[in-house]
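Hi there,

I know you've been waiting on this one. I reran it after we fixed the sequence typo, so this is the corrected version. Both the input and the resulting structure follow.
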Amino acid sequence: MTATSRRGFLGLVGAAALTTACGASGKGAGKTTKLRYQGNAGSVTLPELAADLGYLGTVTLQWVGNTTSGPQDIQSAATGQTDFGGAFNGAVAKLHAAGAPITAVISYYGVDKDSYNGYYTLADSPISGASDLFGKKVGMNTLGAHYEAVLDIYLNRNGVTGDAVKKVEPLVVPPVNTEQTLRARQIDVGCLGGILRDKALAAGGIKPLFSDYDLLGEFSAGTYVFRNDFIAKNPETVTTFTTGVAKAIEWARTTPRDQVVDRFTKIVQARGRNEDTATLKYFKSFGVAGTGGVIAEKELTTWITWLEQQGQIPAGKVKASAVYTNKFNPFAKGGS
């Protein structure tokens, strides 16, 4: 990442923390059972699935638009534009380090043998190892988040450390454009996950370089967060939300895949946003590692350590235990 782009991302994080510190607190005093959130075009989030399954009880969701990235989503929650947001755990830890009073309550996406994020080159590319990436562009959805962290881990494990890492250029490319941008040779490596990965692989002409599953195995990678003031005013709502999402995770894990896809399709069609449902057939799993989305401390410490090594947060400033809680999740206590 260039120094300018890194400063730009940290500036956004700082702005979110500053706005929150200055008193942004969503709807203000009083309890609420309506949760404002951002969705994803052409896909179904776990809270949306939970609502459709009837797992949220009296809690309702109010869609305010679609997010552009995980960091943007949790910044919106931190500044009170939405009530909850989800992002890569490293981004959550970074926002916490910047002073934003947020707490992660449940994991919502992760990595397993079916749901992983791959780094792909064209089939005729000479790139086959870490050192081949010097001077090359790696397209990813956002900087300072999951894809860049995994790229750095790959480089470090393969002998590319220190200033040598700067010879590789992470570049922001919208996920829906990554495959096209790679095939047009505007980038040398494209980061693809989920539906977009499977669609690109089905078309042929690309090959894998590595994946986060190759490097780290199964793990939950991102969490939903609420502002601390919202949690304090609405503990019952947060409990209902967390419980509902946890049940939706297990429903998707134990229900035959064709039935899950069928449900997703009906949800997207019913909300009437003129979205394409064709890619839903590629869904395989949410990749959440813990039962019911229970958060494991190592799923934060891994990225806190990376952030410290990158100099993005001071060593020892952020403790994983201060960033998340499982107290709202019944699965953490052995419940179902």
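Quick highlight: The chain has two domains: 3-112+218-333, 117-216.

Best,
R. S.
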